[in-house]
Amino acid sequence: MNLYSNKQRWKFFLLIAALVIVGITLWYSNAIAEKIRQEEQLKVQLWSEAIQQRAELVNYTQDLFESLRQEERDKADRLAQAYGLINDPPPDMDLTFVTEYLWSNKTIPVLIYDSNDSILYAINLPPGKQRNLAYTDSLRAEMLKRNEPILLKDVGHTIVYNESYRFSELKSVMQDLINSFISETVINSASVPVILTDSSQTQVLRAERIDSLTLEDPKALQKKLASMADQNEPIAIDLPESGLNYIFYEESLVIRQLRFFPVVQLVLIAVFLFTSYLIFSTFRKAEQNQVWVGMAKETAHQLGTPMSSLMAWMALLEAQGVDAATIAEMNKDVDRLNTITDRFSKIGSKPEPTSEDLGELVEKSFDYLKTRISRKVEFSIEKQVDHYPVKVSVPLFSWVLENLVKNAVDAMEGIGSLKAEIGEDATMIYVDITDTGKGLPKGQFKTVFQPGFTTKKRGWGLGLSLTKRIVEDYHDGKIFVKRSEIGKGTTFRIILKREG
After folding, report:
1. Whole-number Cα distances in Å, 125 to 11, 43, 161, 332
2. Which single residue of 55, 277, 398, 470 could bond 237 by disulfide (Cβ 3.0 to 4.6 Å)?
3. Cβ-proximal residues to 54 (8 Å cutoff; 6+ apart), any chain
4. 354: helix, coil or strand?
């Protein structure tokens, strides 16, 4: 019976089933994420097209504004000419029409001063501002910056004028339109990170959803702009006042999150499965331990009764004068049975280690076993020093040596050599058990210790599993396959802490 191979097959089938489930889940979630990602990309594409259309609308409005501004400018120039005609009229000219034209002006602000520089008339000023000297003085200074004053020589009057209120309102509306374009279209649309730069692509005019540290560091900014340009071609827009600008943008945070969503989901599934495996594995091991302990103690209990009978029969045979050598050998086997019973009774209980010499323990185990197995197996022991102090439970550790020797003899099929090499360093003592058997492939170096693993046609495959449990759980040591070669043999190493 090969429990290990059956277990491996079930593990393989369960792994395939888990991979199929994970694959279907990831495929479905990735399909949903891809659909949402395409919708987001379409939104960004529409957003970029809307920017260009709005930029064209702003430029069209700017052209219209320029036309209106020129009309208002021509009107102001005609007004200045009208005042000039009044100042120096041609001979025989009727000034009635000119005068009516001047008084029909309702939009261009005009200030008329006498020869003493005192204001005579304030035309088209906001209500309540005509007699406000501070306001008129400020307005006059502004007018003189933009237009040359008109001097009426005959009467000694000075006329200053400004652009019309309609023109000023148009400028304000135009600036509001540009600001609205930048704020609403460039900054707040599509939820994408945006950087608006000047024509040199070095000065940031506006930015949204960009780390402030990136904007403050010129190198980081250029790196960010290059990254955004790799993703999407910058949008060039020609805005009034500011001229040529560039809009850099990249995919939204939602798209980036969706891109990594399947990976995050896979990690979460893996963590969940791994955690579940650990929990169930712990429960399973606890159950196995309880079953193992129960079987071991029941075995020890069942061996107790025939052991007592055997001891009584041995005493009777000795009293009847049976050959003393035969009785001595039988007593050794009875003692061995007592040791085995003691071993099983200690499973599940905290062992009581004692100070022992590891070399002496190996020698005693080899002396007992070599008279009870094939005589074609040659035993040898190599020690670097005479004494190796360790703390072990003698019944349990001798069981470890017995299992290793029996497995080695089976691997050699009763013919070969078995050597124990004992060595040490500052804190550890090791013993290597080397046989000349069939050897193990590297793939079985770890699985050889798993319950159910066996290369024999008979057996449960529990010997090496029990050996590992005794060494590592009860003696806080280590056991592993140090080396093995097919057709040449295997070496198992046991490592124990040095006492003292």
Report:
1. 93, 50, 11, 130
2. 55
3. 181, 185
4. strand
Q: Give strand pairing partners of 391.
A: 355
For 436-484, write each residue's pLDDT tens digit. Answer: 999 999 888 888 887 766 666 554 456 788 889 889 988 899 999 999 9
Residues of the chain with pLDDT under 50: 1, 459-460
The 10 Å Cβ neighbour count of residue 482 is: 15
Where are the chain's structural domains?
A: 3-166, 350-497
Tokens of 241: 């006042």
Alpha-carbon span 248 to 52, nearest angstrom:
13
What's the rounded Cα separation, in Å, for the pair 399 and 432? 16
pTM: 0.43
Architecture label for domain 350-497:
2-Layer Sandwich (3.30)
If we measure between CA atoms, which residue out of 59, 66, 159 comes closest to residue 108? 159
Mind giving me the DSSP string for 293-320?
HHHHHHHHHHHHHHHHHHHHHHHHHHHT
Note whether 79 and 143 are within 8 A (CB). no
Rounded CA gap, 168 and 75, in Å?
14
SS3 39: helix
Helix (H) or strand (E) holding 159: strand 157-161
Q: What is the pLDDT of residues 369-414, one digit of tens each?
A: 888 788 889 999 999 888 999 999 888 898 899 889 988 998 898 8
SS3 letters for 190-250?
CCCCEEEECCCCCCEEEEECCCHHHHHCHHHHHHHHHHHHHHCCCEEEEECCCEEEEEEEC
Radius of gyration, alpha carbons of the chain: 51
| H or E, element range at 270 | helix 253-319
Determine contact, residues 272/280, Cβ cutoff 8 Å: no
Query: Residue 465 carries which side chain, given as an amino acid letter?
Result: S
